[in-house]
């Protein structure tokens, strides 16, 4: 693979991965405007975010088997076209109920991009490079929370929140062209792969029985829910509690994303000296400490705007180490069923994240305590899952060693 081809693949896969984050982040500054136009509250508007996460979680379980059966690109085309149409429909929603439903449809379609990007990393690159590739994808993806809310703030202020969804539709059209022209089909269709519920569920069960998968996928997913709790709660925290405007909120959100992006790139350097298993433990311990400090600070009123930003920055930095290593370790045992494995991994991330955002909406009390509590709890539960799962892995004496062809089992 030439360097030019390598970079092209990373960019296209990165844009596929970034479609979901753009869909989440770009309309956040418009929450107050949406609430006003649709005669509802910011807490009700946050349910459009919850429905999006639920849609991604459910949709990935659909697209995983489809991509193992028909190859990666055909289901991807269908998903991108559906996303484009749903985005246009969101721009013309006239009630909060309609927007919640349309966001669910938009999410189901967008997750085709998420599943394809993760599976194609496993298809196109050597296993030992997967963690590094995921870190590079996070660099591309990381641009989205820096750009999306900032652009969304200016677009909302200048043209209204509806324009945000029209921009998302245009992005989907551009990505569709890039996929067609620059992305190879990385997995041949498998006519033997059954789409009947029983064999699909059987493959999912097989993936779930793998200790490496459930240890790292679920610890990574629970840790990731802390990020989604922050994303869902940030409009209330910054625009209502700290009274910043849409544009200022976009810049704050962009700055906080630097922690996540920067840490993901430091992770690439650390992988030269440390194993992914060691890095993820250290990251979760730090995440728990920072989350606890943040929760205590919020509960006792110790934190002003800048101290709050600092705590969240450090918390997100920990996730920059957790996510790429958890993703790589989760998929290491799989070759043939990489699509199903990546779908389950993504579904667990978004499903648990959706639960966190629903809980946040239900317990909303116009303070940041529910958000901070969920962030701290996510780190604690993720660390417990990781430690317990690693004990199972060690007891079985199985380790997946990355080599240039596949993950080999070392007893």
TrEMBL record:
Domain Major facilitator superfamily (MFS) profile, chain residue ranges per copy: 9-394
Family as reported in the entry's similarity comment: Belongs to the major facilitator superfamily. Bcr/CmlA family.
One matching Pfam family: MFS_1
The protein's name in its UniProt record: MFS transporter
Record key words, sorted: Cell membrane, Membrane, Transmembrane, Transmembrane helix, Transport
GO molecular function: sodium:proton antiporter activity; xenobiotic transmembrane transporter activity
Main location: membrane
One biological process term in Gene Ontology: xenobiotic detoxification by transmembrane export across the plasma membrane
Membrane topology of the entry: Multi-pass membrane protein
Originating species: Pontibacter diazotrophicus
GO CC entries: plasma membrane
Superkingdom of origin: Bacteria
Cited PANTHER family: MAJOR FACILITATOR SUPERFAMILY, POLYAMINE TRANSPORTER 2-RELATED
Protein location: Cell membrane
Residues passing through the membrane, by range: 45-64, 76-94, 100-121, 133-157, 163-183, 213-237, 249-267, 279-299, 305-323, 343-363, 369-389
Matches recorded under Gene3D superfamilies: Multidrug resistance protein D
């Amino acid at each position: 693979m030439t360097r030019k081809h390598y970079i092209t693949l990373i960019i296209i896969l990165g844009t596929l991965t970034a479609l979901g984050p753009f869909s989440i982040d770009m309309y956040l500054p418009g929450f107050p405007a949406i609430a006003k136009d649709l005669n509802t509250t910011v807490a009700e508007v946050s349910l459009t975010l919850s429905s999006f996460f639920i849609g991604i979680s459910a949709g990935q379980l659909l697209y995983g088997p489809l991509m193992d059966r028909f190859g990666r690109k055909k289901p991807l085309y269908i998903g991108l076209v559906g996303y484009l149409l749903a985005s246009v429909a969101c721009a013309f929603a006239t009630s909060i109920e309609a927007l919640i439903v349309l966001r669910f449809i938009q999410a189901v379609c967008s997750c085709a991009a998420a599943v394809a990007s993760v599976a194609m990393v496993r298809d196109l690159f050597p296993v030992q490079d997967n963690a590094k590739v995921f870190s590079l994808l996070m660099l591309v993806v990381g641009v989205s929370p820096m750009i999306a809310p900032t652009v969304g703030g200016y677009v909302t202020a200048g043209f209204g929140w509806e324009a945000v969804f029209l921009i998302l539709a245009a992005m989907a059209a551009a990505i569709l062209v890039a996929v067609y022209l620059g992305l190879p089909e990385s997995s041949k269709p498998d006519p033997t792969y059954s789409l009947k519920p029983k064999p699909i569920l059987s493959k999912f069960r097989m993936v779930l029985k793998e200790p490496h998968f459930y240890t790292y996928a679920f610890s990574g997913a629970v840790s990731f829910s802390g990020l989604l709790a922050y994303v869902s709660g940030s409009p209330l925290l910054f625009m209502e509690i700290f009274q910043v405007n849409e544009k200022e909120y976009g810049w704050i959100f962009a700055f906080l994303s630097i922690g996540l992006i920067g840490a993901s790139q430091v992770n690439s350097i650390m992988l030269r000296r440390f194993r992914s298993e060691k890095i993820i433990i250290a990251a979760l311990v730090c995440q728990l400490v920072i989350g606890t400090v943040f929760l205590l600070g919020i509960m006792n009123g110790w934190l002003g705007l800048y101290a709050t930003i600092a705590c969240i920055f450090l918390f997100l930095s920990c996730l920059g180490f957790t996510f790429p290593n958890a993703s790589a370790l989760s998929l290491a045992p799989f070759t043939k069923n990489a699509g199903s494995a990546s779908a389950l991994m993504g579904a667990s991330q978004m499903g648990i994240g959706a639960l966190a955002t629903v809980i946040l909406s239900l317990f909303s009390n116009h303070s940041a305590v529910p958000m901070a509590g969920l962030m701290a709890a996510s780190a604690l539960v993720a660390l417990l899952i990781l430690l317990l799962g690693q004990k199972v892995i060690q007891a079985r004496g199985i380790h997946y060693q990355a080599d240039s062809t596949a993950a080999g089992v070392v007893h």
